[in-house]
Design a protein that fits this description.
A hairpin with a 4-residue loop joins strand 8 and strand 9. The mean pLDDT is 89. The protein has 12 helices and 12 strands. A 6-stranded mixed β-barrel has the order 3-4-10-7-9-8. A 4-stranded antiparallel sheet has the order 2-11-1-12. The protein is α+β, with helices and mostly antiparallel strands and 398 residues long.
């Protein structure tokens, strides 16, 4: 170890630069990998819907003769009678889009009470089946409980269905079924059902906090969710669009889109961030490996006489390889020690400024292991080249 340290201290500029490079690489790679894994987990989580077999669209009445209620009922009858359609429901907003409606749910009436910001989705009694949601407790809405409501008027439904995550947030110590909740501490509704999962709007407090209301809006703009049999979605989408457009000339059909595409677009920024950070990680690791490799090649060329002298004195090839491997390991170890502190500091700054969660403890050790392996691989070829130098040639090289 002493000769190695002595050699590094005599020519410390290159070693210091590599150490700094390794430290910066560890700090960035650990945090970037953490963010990438978070984004991938976000993208891959189930929505609760039968997204592969659902499509959505909007109907907009644009003439004075347009009548919402008869049109909605006619549309639903036509949709549900179409071969290949499992079910259909009107809906105020399409889930997993940039649009959203929310309100605060609380456990008591009054001002300034704690609320859970909840995404609101207005559907009829076919809503659960059309969305493909799994009811795990309670019951569904009945036809008689669904109200057609003017969107310009305030209305609070007497009953609602909520997601499991919202139910646990509101009632962490007990069963939410049958309990009364208050909208922003004012009007009340009773929970009659709980669905396992429904990831709806990004405007809720958490993406899984959603409530289904037995309401159909009678405005000029109506959204529809249509669930088809597996493999029938793409075939039925243009057919239904044409059929509905021709059935009523007082309105237009727009926004036709599959739920799979809607979900993909919802996570577009997360996917782009994951791709960009992955590219950064690969480039940074590659540049660091080249830095270690370049310094090792430089040291081999500069120390040919020293290597030859050691070989002439009886050093084995393995001894020469070990020399450069240990030298690389020392630089890498110093770099990862400094980099570990930088990784924690960088994550703290990101958490304070961009609300990123704290770095999981195992990312830093994983980064250390990666850089140790990278240093060993990068220096292996120069070390083998050094070990292959014949003593006679090396000792003539001055």
């Amino acid at each position: 170890m002493r000769p190695i340290l002595s050699a590094l201290l005599r020519n410390k500029t290159g070693a210091v630069l590599v150490v700094i490079q390794i430290a910066i690489t560890l700090a960035i790679v650990a945090n970037a990998l953490f963010i990438v894994n978070q984004r991938l987990a976000l993208i891959g989580r189930p929505t609760g819907m039968d997204a592969a077999n659902i499509f959505s669209f909007f109907s907009f009445g644009f003439t004075p003769d347009y009548k919402a209620v008869p049109t909605i009922r006619q549309d639903l009858r036509m949709l549900r009678e179409t071969p290949g359609v499992v079910d259909a429901t009107p809906i105020n907003l399409i889930p997993m889009t940039s649009s959203g409606s929310n309100s605060g749910l609380s456990l008591e009436r009054g001002e300034n009470v704690p609320v859970a910001v909840t995404g609101l989705y207005e559907v009829d009694e076919h809503g659960l089946n059309a969305l493909g949601l799994k009811l795990i407790a309670g019951r569904n809405f009945t036809h008689e409980e669904v109200d057609y409501v003017d969107p310009e008027k305030d209305y609070t439904p007497p009953i609602i269905i909520v997601t499991q995550s919202l139910a646990k947030e509101l009632f962490p110590g007990g069963d939410a079924l049958g309990k009364t909740v208050y909208w922003n501490g004012k009007e009340s509704s009773r929970i009659i059902g709980i669905v396992q999962r429904f990831y709806g709007s990004k405007y809720s407090g958490k993406i899984g906090w959603s409530a289904l209301l037995p309401v159909v809006s009678t405005g000029n703009r109506t959204g529809y969710i249509v669930r088809t049999q597996p493999g029938s979605r793409d075939r039925l989408m243009p057919k239904i669009e044409k059929k509905l457009s021709e059935s009523n000339r007082d309105r237009t059909i727009f926004g036709l889109n599959s739920m799979a595409k809607t979900v993909s677009e919802f996570y577009r920024r997360d996917r782009a961030m994951a791709v960009i950070l992955t590219i950064v990680i690969v480039l940074l690791v590659a540049v660091t490996a080249l830095g270690i490799f370049g310094l090792a090649v430089f040291n081999v060329n500069r120390r040919r006489k020293q290597i030859g002298t050691r070989r002439a004195l009886g050093a084995r090839k393995l001894d020469i390889i070990n020399y450069f491997m240990i030298e690389s390991w020392l630089m890498t170890t110093i770099g990862v020690v400094v980099g570990s502190a930088l990784a924690v500091a960088l994550n703290y700054w990101l958490a304070m400024n961009y609300s990123i969660p704290r770095l999981a403890w195992y990312y830093v050790p994983a980064g250390i292991g990666l850089l140790w392996a990278l240093g060993a691989v990068a220096v292996l070829m120069p070390a083998l080249r050094a070990a292959s130098i014949p003593p006679a040639v090396a000792t003539r090289t001055v």
